[in-house]
Specification:
seven-stranded mixed β-sheet; NHTrfase_class1_PyrdxlP-BS; 381 residues; alpha/beta; 12 helices
Length: 381
């Protein structure tokens, strides 16, 4: 038998990949499962996006290999989006690299900058892919705590006690996943100063800025941020295009060029029609965000009622696509708690533990569930 690479010993199958098999098995047995686990938008992209893709498919020049850097007009649309929404100026020629979803950007950046044995600062709780990619490239995860008593923001006094001799990258993501903590420009300013002091590449993963958030922010709004920072963004949540796989990374030309060296060896460009659809999405006006948030606001109100029905305490300050809630006193295991609900009430909720040890005692609800289904979940109790 051919043995697998040792790097596979450092990771497990992604939680949702394995757990959703369990959910599908229950569905095949006739159970009516309400899936409140994953953040895959159930709403559709705008009509303009669909029309742009439909027209592009008829273009006889649209079916060949595309540029590794994407269409110039798509990079320009991304630059315009950052200027209009965040007040951030980026050069579309050399400070933006389109990605097939921001998740691949995590791997590309890690391959571009991490050597075996380098250390990576990772938020706890945080997106599990930061850890798995760090392990796959042979680097070492070093977790920094985010706790509710600190508003799910880093404790800089604790951070300064770390050994920075091998630290190369620091991951963060505000609005924060899974808690929904907003962050602030003041926090971003402290993080940029921290990264400059310790010569760290700081990366903000920013796909949730426009969901239930009245003050979208970018790390690149901080003066001098481009000297030490990158920002990842995505059309997945903002424009209901999760399966289309369109993202971007923004930063200074030297760093972007390093990421391009990796990316250009791993794919052959994004499909022309998808790029045309992305351009149309990025040109959506303010009413698009307002209409989406009306839907998510109603869903959040109902989901909070469901959480309270479970005697959980909701983190009310959260924004984004999820509701983060603290389990009742005396509950020792988030995973056991959600499994009981899955098998007894046929509702799938995410345990906070998959995001790190500081997620124990919490659960996360997705807002990618229609109102009538959330109400049905409430009624099951």
């Amino acid at each position: 038998m051919i043995t697998t690479a040792k790097r596979l010993d450092t990771v497990e199958e992604y939680y949702f990949s394995s757990k959703l098999r369990e959910v599908r098995q229950l569905m095949s047995e006739g159970k009516s499962i309400i899936n409140m686990g994953i953040g895959s938008p159930d709403l559709s992209p705008s009509k303009a996006v669909i029309e742009a893709v439909a027209a592009a498919i008829q273009d006889e020049n649209g079916h060949g290999y595309q540029s590794y850097q994407g269409l110039p007009e798509m990079r320009q649309a991304m630059a315009d989006f950052y200027r209009d929404q965040f007040g951030v100026e980026v050069n579309p020629n050399n400070e933006i690299l389109p990605l097939m979803g921001s998740k691949e950007g995590i791997m590309h950046i890690s391959l571009a900058f991490l050597n075996e044995g380098d250390h990576v600062l990772i938020p706890n709780p945080g997106y599990p892919t930061y850890t798995s990619v760090t392990n796959l490239v042979g680097a070492v995860p070093v977790y920094y705590d985010l706790k509710e008593e600190n508003g799910w923001e880093p404790d800089f006094e604790a951070l300064e006690k770390l050994d920075f001799s091998k630290v190369k990258i620091m991951w963060l993501g505000y609005p924060h996943m899974p808690t929904g903590a907003r962050g602030s420009l003041a926090l971003f300013e402290k993080l940029v100063a921290f990264a400059k002091k310790h010569n760290i590449l700081l990366i903000n993963d920013n796909p949730y800025s426009f969901v239930l958030n009245d003050n979208p922010m970018s790390l690149l709004q901080v003066e001098g941020a481009k000297e030490v920072a990158l920002e990842l963004n995505s059309l997945s949540k903002t424009f209901n295009m999760a399966g289309w796989r369109v993202g971007m990374v923004l930063g200074n030309p030297e760093v972007i060029d390093a990421v391009l060296k990796v990316k250009s060896n791993m794919d052959s460009g994004m499909f022309y029609g998808i790029q045309k659809g992305a351009i149309a999405a990025l040109k959506c006006d303010k009413s698009w965000f307002e209409d989406q948030n009306k839907i998510y606001r109603r869903r959040r109100e109902l989901t909070e009622k469901l959480a309270e029905k479970l005697n959980c305490k909701v983190y009310k300050e959260g924004v984004g696509l999820f509701v983060w809630a603290k389990l009742p006193e005396g509950i020792e295991s988030a995973e056991k708690f959600i499994d009981e609900i899955l098998y007894e009430k046929h509702i799938f909720i995410t345990p906070g533990t998959i995001f790190g040890s500081n997620g124990e005692g919490y659960i996360r609800f997705s807002l990618c569930v229609k109102e009538e289904k959330v109400q049905e979940a409430i009624d099951r109790f």
